[in-house]
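[job 4471] stage=fold_predict status=RUNNING
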Amino acid sequence: MEKIDRKFRILAVNPVNGKVYDESNSLLLCAKDKAVPAALAAYELECIRIGANPEHILSVNLLRMRVQGYQEEIESRVPDTVGDEIPRCIQGEGV
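[job 4471] inference complete, writing structure tokens
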């Protein structure tokens, strides 16, 4: 199976159910990336459209607000893929 996220190595563990996620079954968006709030807003709308439970929708909304706060208080920038990341992300080299 092809890796979903080619840019990052990921190791995430859900602290409630113990499920483990990596780059083969998840993706990573950096809170500093200016596109993330809009991406989360679109995700929230799609969750509403497909009938996700209200708690999930609220959790996404709260996440978006935390990201916006982070960007206002700490850091925000235009996302990019540069240098050696390009062949990895585009052609899958070294994945």
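[job 4471] summary: The beta strands are 11-13, 20-22.
[job 4471] exit 0
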